[in-house]
Amino acid sequence: MINLLPDTKNIITNWMRYKGVVGVISSFVLGGYILVAAGSAGWWLFLTRQDESVKKEIASLTQQISDLKATETAVRAVDERVGVVNSFLTGRADPAKIMAGFLAQVIDGVKISGWSWKSDKNVTVATIEAADLQVIETFRQKIKGSKIINLTRSKEGLWVAEMQL
Amino acid sequence: MGSGNAVVKKWLWLAYPAMVMLLIGFSWQWLVAGPDQIWQKIAVKQQKVAAQQLQAASLRQKAVVLGEQDVNKLQGQVGFLESVVPVENRVSALLALSRQAAGGSVSINGYKWATGGGLTLSLGVADLTVLRDLLTRLQQTIPLLAVKSVKLAGESAEVGLEVAWKPARTVEAVADKPLPILTGVVEQLQQKLAVYITPVVGVATTSGETVKADPFSE
């Protein structure tokens, strides 16, 4: 006769072998889990308290700064006007510097009879006179980037050149 | 019945690991994977606290800097800066300044007001060096001037001038906006502009009289 009923006794006996190991592992897992959960809860609590304390500090500092509103406005007004002055100082063209550079190139035999400059076009034109055409050419070569835009001869027999600097 | 109880008793030890698994499973579902997502909340809160601490540090520094400022000194600095670049077009200063800059070496033959608020000076200059020196002096005045054009023909010259000006912009205190760094900035400007000439208008003397040094200034 075949016994189809499970052999309960045997199964229980087999599983009983793991009872100790399962109990130890379960305890470790539970312990670790409790540690992690407690740590997380503690960290959360710590962050919450820190959050509240920083919020309070920010509110108090904001109030302090609001009380010094007049000072802050004055600081910002100074900063604004410093920017205005600096921007004007650095933005304006200096014709005296251009002229100084031009005059540093003067050679014998050349008379500078005219000079014009406009800040909006930033073009400088100088009129020079010399008896010898070669002197004018030498002068032009001395000033880098310059070019003769007009050349005439005066009644006195002088060469008159308009140079764009 | 009695045998059933014995079987249950024998399997009872499995209740402990099963409960541990259930506890972890349910709390994992609620706290980590579920809608509360405690880890994510902790991470977000940590970032928020760090950002707030930075903000508090910046505010603390700002409060210290503001506490060290002297409003009267700052207002004095604004006054100085507005004398350098006025808040309105002080065309009257052009005359006084150009006369002072011309001095004795350049003769002013005439003035012409430009429609935009500038001034054109007609001058008698001996040579380019004199004109160059005049231009240098004109660029070293308070209020600041800008030379817009120069035209020299022979011994007469025309110089177009404009005085610097810019209307005051309304500035407001903003608590959480960092303060601009001004340490030594105004002092450097004052040092740089110390040699610049200023229009001598209505100079108060020690005797209490007022001397109008430039009849063209007003």
Count the helices of chain A. How many?
Answer: 5
Overall mean pLDDT of chain A: 88
Low-confidence spans of chain A: pLDDT under 50, at least 5 residues? none
Total strands of chain B: the figure is 6
Oligomeric status: heterodimer
Biggest pleated sheet of chain B: 4 strands, antiparallel
* Shape summary of chain A: elongated
- Rg of chain B to the nearest angstrom? 39 Å
H-E order of chain B: HHHHHEEHEEHEE
Order of helix and strand elements from N to C terminus of chain A? HHHHEEHEE
Instruction: Indicate the proportion of strand residues of chain A.
Output: 15-25%
Number of strands of chain A: 4
Q: Greatest interface and its residue counts?
A: A-B, 67 and 73 residues
Morphology call of chain B: rod-shaped
Question: What key phrases describe this protein's structure?
Answer:
heterodimer; A: 165 residues; alpha+beta; Gyrase A, domain 2; 2 domains; 4-stranded antiparallel beta sheet; 5 helices; 4 strands; 61% helix; B: 218 residues; two-stranded antiparallel ribbon; 7 helices; 6 strands; 16% strand; disordered C terminus
Explain this structure.
Chain A is an alpha+beta fold. Chain A has 2 domains: 9-92; 95-164, 2-Layer Sandwich (Gyrase A, domain 2), CATH 3.30.1360. In chain A, 61% of the residues lie in helices and 18% in strands. In chain A, strands 1-2-4-3 form a 4-stranded antiparallel β-sheet. Chain A starts with 7 loop residues before the first helix and ends with a strand. The mean pLDDT of chain A is 88. Residues 202-218 of chain B have low confidence and may be disordered. Chain B is rod-shaped and about 135 Å long. Chain B starts with a helix and ends in a 7-residue tail after the last strand. In chain B, a hairpin with a 2-residue loop joins strand 3 and strand 4 (156-163). Chain B is of the alpha+beta class. The chains are: A alpha+beta (165), B alpha+beta (218). At the A-B interface, helix 1, helix 2, helix 3, helix 4 and strand 1 of A face helix 1, helix 2, helix 3, helix 4 and helix 6 of B. Strand 1 of chain A pairs antiparallel with strand 3 of chain B, so a sheet runs across the interface.
